[in-house]
Amino acid sequence: MGVVTSPKQDRSRATRQRLLAAAVACLAERGWAGSTVSVVAERAGVSRGAAQHHFPTREDLFTAAVEYVAEERSTALRALAPEGRAQAVEALVDLYTGDLFRAALHLWVAACDEPQLGARVTELEARVGRETHHIAVALLGADESRPGVRELVQGLLDMARGLGLANLLTDDTARRRKVVTQWTRVLDGALG
Fold first, then answer.
1. How far apart are CA 191 and CA 171, in angstroms?
2. CATH node for 6-189
3. Considering the entire predicted model, what is its pTM?
4. For this UniProt entry, which residues form the secretion signal (predicted)?
């Protein structure tokens, strides 16, 4: 039997989700310096007080936002049924080309200079990294008991992150497509 929620709980959940989506969008567009609780609240269409009710600190808001969207992406990836390894590689590379990656990058950079944020982001990144690696193994049909396979999968994710960084400055679609095609050939040869 499902959990019954009240209209007030539903509104609270909807407000929280609007705040999380607005926070990711603000980070992606404005960076850490330009993203404040007030800016996010305004974008989400709620009062600053409502935002602080859900997220007492700026760090709470932005780490929760990146975590929330990362979990949503993980759920979507787990549900993916790729038609071949090339589609799996492309889906994994796409993780690093959208607003979530841009927002996470701003959060990582801010964490380098803000100790109160650093520990939280480091823990979050480790958790998201482990989850992404597990999903990649499943999507690729990789057997990590074979020597070198774990490193090969991690190399794919590291390469995808680098492609995402390159894409931040210019549209790197054509080059990225060629790299994905070649990396798929390497994986096919190594994973069988």
1. 30
2. 1.10.357.10
3. 0.81
4. none
pLDDT tens-digit profile of 31-64?
A: 999 999 999 999 999 999 999 999 999 999 988 9
CA distance 190 to 192: 6
Q: What is the pLDDT of residues 148-182, one digit of tens each?
A: 999 999 999 999 999 988 888 888 888 889 999 99
- The alpha carbon dihedral of 8, 12, 18, 21 has a sign of negative
* Cβ neighbours of residue 156 closer than 8 Å, sequence gap 6 or more: 89, 92, 136, 140, 183, 187
Spatial CA neighbour of 165 closest among 90, 77, 84, 104: 104
Closest listed residue to residue 132, CA positions, set 111, 98, 171, 160: 160
The structure tokens 């404040």 sit at 36
